Amino acid sequence: MMRGGLLALAALALGASTVAAAERDRVEASPVYGVTLPKDYRHWTLISVAQENGKNNDIRAILGNDIAVKAYRKGKRPFPDGAVIVRLAWHYQSSPRNDAFFPSPQSFVAGEPTNVQVSVKDSKRFAASGGWGYGQFEKGVANQDVKLMQSCFTCHNKLEKSADLVFTAWAP
Questions:
Q1: Is residue 20 part of a domain?
Q2: Domain coverage including residue 59
Q3: pLDDT in tens, 4-24
Q4: Which of 26, 77, 118, 125 has the fewest Cβ atoms within 10 angstroms?
Q5: 66-94 confidence digits (pLDDT tens)
Q6: pTM here?
Q7: Is 4 contained in some domain?
Q8: 35-71 confidence digits (pLDDT tens)
């Protein structure tokens, strides 16, 4: 009986250490910028929504922390340090369930999630990229594609200076 209990305890400890090792190996920060997925971002204020057609074919919700939302509401640009903007994306798909209640197909909904993108304003830490650091996360894990992360600034840098490298406008 004692030996069986010790074996069960050893197996439990081995399982726990394997889970802990997997969690340690899980990369939480983006390459290039070291941006992490903010805790509780799903509770932040909605800034806007967007739909991307073509290759992306997704629907997006753009959220901001209190600093970002305050700057949006006041029209303050550049954004102050500490502003964080999060973009959640899902596949954009029709909803046969909802359409069953309408006279013609018209309902589209968020399908499977694609990724979460994070922009963090820190003018000193990210001076080389206009004051913004970027990260992209799939299922909570940071995408480690360095070229992808470098392309964030390349694309955002095409915006007019008055936008402070931010695509999303406040949706009143």
A1: no
A2: 27-163
A3: 444 444 444 445 444 444 444
A4: 26
A5: 999 999 999 999 999 999 999 999 999 99
A6: 0.82
A7: no
A8: 999 999 999 999 999 999 988 899 999 999 999 999 9
